[in-house]
Amino acid sequence: MRPLFLSALIAAAAAFPAVAQVADLRSHTQFRVCADPANAPMSMQDGTGFENRLAEQFGQWLNLPVTYSWFPSGMGFITRTLRAGTCDVVMGYAQGDELVQNTNHYYTSVFGIVTRSDSPLATVDHLGDPALKGHPIGVVAGSPPATIMARAGLAADMRGADLFVDRRVKDPVGLLIDGVRDGSLDAAVIWGPLAGPRVKDDPDLQFVPLLKEGAGPKMFYRITMGVRPGEQEWKRELNSLIRRHQDEISTTLREAGVPLVDDYGKELLP
Q1: Which ranges in 89-191 belong to alpha helices (H)?
Q2: Which of 93, 104, 134, 175 has the most crowded CB, counting CB atoms within 10 A?
Q3: Helix or strand or coil: residue 72?
Q4: How far is CA 186 from CA 136, 161, 256, in A?
């Protein structure tokens, strides 16, 4: 959002000055990735995130070793990594803001509802469903679905998780999912790439994508890589790799449990 990360990046976009000259910053001997060391299940310093696996694939296609510049996502992330010249690409960056230059998108994903599989709310597939009222529902504060939930009269039922946190010491999405698992929450509305991989192997939990919202902020977003403004040749090289290896990229995402939709918000089945 990536809309725990997505919302933070969009909120921070106006805070950083442009870099006048970037042409000499890109490494030609390493695939240097800017990443959060504890943004499970996306990027992890131990290499277990699905973005780590994607980075390894891109490194292989470029015939370059993968190295990382680690910094917690949120305020200051782009300034201290990509714009400081310590790395050359941000994996999993939402399309549409001006903080970085976006490559072509390599997947589109969606917010959804996590419930217990045996819950009375297990059939809910849109935030306007009256069945949600009166049930404690977790949501990341400031994320797009929080706006729709408030408009749907669910403000009293919302249990917010913090957006700007250091996930090395606090895991807001994990806490929401744990709340659904232990019954302290009846549901949680979470960005799909954060929720899907965490629940895909749990028979007690399910993720239902929000594909039927008719008003308010959209629930699906195109995900790109971010590079420095002005690095057109580097962007074109990555775009070429995305185009030629899209099937392999999609397979990696599906294996990780990331829910995929097309550019119009229609679910893509395996």
Answers
A1: 144-151, 172-182
A2: 93
A3: coil
A4: 6, 15, 25
Beta strands 38-39; 66-70: pairing state: unpaired
Query: Within this chain, do residues 164 and 115 fall inside the same structural domain, yes or no?
Result: yes
Residue 222 corresponds to which tokens in the numbers above?
A: 């195109």
Three-state SS at 110:
strand
Mean pLDDT of all residues in 69-85: 92
Provide the domain limits for residue 228: 5-107+219-256
Report the pLDDT averaged over residues 67-95: 93
Regarding whether 46 and 120 lie in a shared domain, the answer is no
117 and 62 within one domain: no
Residue 97 lies in a domain: yes
Q: Which residue has the higher pLDDT, 185 or 73?
A: 185
Mean pLDDT of 88-100: 89
Residues 13 and 103 in one domain: yes
Residue 248 has pLDDT above 60, yes or no: yes
